[in-house]
Amino acid sequence: MRLIVLLLALFLCSLRIVDAATILDTTVNSLAEQSFLPDNKPAPAKAQHYISLIIDDMGYRYQSGKRAINLPANITYAFLPYAPHARKLANLANKKQKEIMLHIPMEATSGKKLGPGGLTAAMPRAVFELELQHNLLAIPYIKGVNNHMGSLLTQQSEPMTWLMEMLVTREMYFVDSRTSGKSQALNVARQYGLRSETRDVFVDHDLSEKAIKQQLALAVSVARRNGSAVIIAHPFPETIRALEQWLPEAKAQGLEFVYMSKLLSIRQQNRAQRKINKRVTQWQAPLKQNKNN
Fold first, then answer.
1. Helix 2-15 × helix 20-32 angle, to 10°
2. What's the CATH number where 260 sits?
3. Prediction pTM value
4. Are residues 91 and 161 in the same domain?
């Protein structure tokens, strides 16, 4: 279709039937209305407000984990690889058609104990990759990965490279929990073309009711300002109680909860559309200037 529009413009210009600037301006406008995405691909998402809620640290407490899985929204659950109830809860989440991630323990600057499956900066590549492979096999149905702690390890490009290389081969996505402002994880992931994002809001650093409500309000603000937000919470009783109340209220305000994999697609499409809009604006500027002259 784009080729036909361009050929028609050139033909009319050659016949001098219509002013060339007018034809080219019309052509650019016509092309701008098209998605510029490959055939049979969905059009970029409409202007809506999306939230992807990830619940981390799943697998240690069965009842709280079950209660979290029963929350009434499209929520993504990140399971620690060797937690005692992780596989059972992951199977339950899958039966309820929820999305599942692997929550990989990574070395922190505090030196806090990692537990089974932990990845450290001192590991040689072969050991790192073997441990990572075992982690990926520990939880069923995983579509992506995020880091548990990791304020030290995510600052280091080399182990992040090893991680992303393995995730690319498995067509998984990565979410940087952003436990360090110096994290290199997202940059490395995108260098490998891995679908990836970083979290925007932590919900429950402080478990007081007031603090959790403030963080949820911040999540709504971020989603309305940027079009979407990635938020991370944990299966604490205080958090689950707050989410049970907040989720229906947020939906009533027009917020849409989507799995992390869908939010990645939405953000990717929106970034592509912004690039197209920028190019179209650049094309139109000299044409409009010529018409005014």
1. 170
2. 3.20.20.370
3. 0.80
4. yes
